[in-house]
Amino acid sequence: MNMLQALRARWHYRERGYQVFRDVFPADEVMAIAALARQIPAHAGKLRRQDGVFAANDFFPGTTLVRNPLLHPHLSLPGELAPLSAALRQFVTSPAIATRLRMLDGRRQHYVVHQVLLFLAAQTTDMHLDSWSLDTSPRGLSHTVWIPLQPMDHRSGVPCVIPWPRRGVVTESMLGLTPGGADPQKERYDAYHRALRDQIMSSSPEIVSALVRPGDFMAWSSLTPHFTMPSHPAPVERLSLQVLIRPATQRWGDFLNQPHDRHSLQLVRVSPDFSIKIMDGEARREGSEGHRGQAPYLSAD
């Protein structure tokens, strides 16, 4: 992109909360990762899943489509899946991603990869904000990067967004909810998103998605409402990555905790562009620095 295109992209992201980037990665690199990911259904062991628990593949009935996504596959995978883990670690910390995020942020900075999910089949995800998983303080400066690993069209179950100002915070009180009025936190999450959906749908909003190819990616702000369109047929293979990323210079927490300081967080600097959050088990192997904080929810699209 030239300077004028970069300025337009930054303005668009600020005002509408999302941006689609085309031909960012070599298509053959993306398809090679997809080929490695297609080994997962044959894996007989337990892998870390979206809820953080190690579990075996859970197949959609009558298919070989895995419906329980992998959490943090870029950190470590066993045996025959180790090459996939190494490829993902390099891929999600690509300078090409950092360049596009700096374009949206309008400044050169280092980034932290907090969460990676690898999806093997299309999801059924209701409208939500990723801010409840990870956000900066102040809110709205964290990014979600969604990367397709195969061609996807209108039948693929692609995510879509509701255009939304990047810093457009809607608090619980603005929705008529009493902050802290529900306990535990999951009840607050559910009550907030029900109220937010009702408010958004009352205005008949537009939605935006993208038909994508290997090499493309879509980014949206932590405050951008989004959900997954249904696939046809269902279930269907939909190989994709979702990566939650924040600027390293920003204080952080999540939607409710701004910022919070509850659990140990380990960071490893892997390049001038990125550090990655690693789990406690990996921290000892990496010899990483100790930091604080961990968000309570996992985003999924």
Structure description:
This protein has 301 residues and is an alpha+beta fold. 24% of the residues lie in helices and 23% in strands. It has one domain (3-292): Sandwich (Jelly Rolls), CATH 2.60.120. Strands 1, 4, 5, 7, 9, 11, 13, 14 and 15 form a nine-stranded mixed beta sheet that branches.
Task: Describe the SSE topology.
Layout: H1 3-16, E1 18-21, H2 27-37, E2 47-48, E3 54-55, E4 70-71, H3 82-92, H4 95-105, E5 111-121, E6 135-137, E7 143-148, E8 159-161, H5 185-201, E9 217-221, E10 226-228, E11 237-247, E12 251-253, E13 264-269, E14 274-278, H6 280-286, E15 289-292
Parallel strand pairs: 5-14
Antiparallel strand pairs: 1-9, 2-3, 4-5, 5-11, 6-12, 7-9, 7-11, 8-10, 13-14, 13-15
Q: Can you give keywords for this protein?
A:
alpha+beta; Jelly Rolls; two-stranded antiparallel sheet; 301 residues; 24% helix; 9-stranded mixed β-sheet; 6 helices
Q: Kindly name the structural category.
A: alpha+beta
Question: On the 0-100 scale, what is the average pLDDT?
Answer: 90
The CATH architecture can be given as Sandwich
> How much of the sequence is in beta strands?
15-25%
* CATH topology name: Jelly Rolls
Helix share bin: 10-25%
Number of helices: 6
Overall morphology: globular
> Can you summarize the main beta sheet?
9 strands, mixed
What are the segments in which pLDDT stays under 50 over at least 5 consecutive residues? 283-297
* Superfamily (CATH H level) name: q2cbj1_9rhob like domain
- What series of H and E elements makes up the topology? HEHEEEHHEEEEHEEEEEEHE
The CA-CA distance between the termini, in Å, is: 28 Å
Radius of gyration: 18 Å
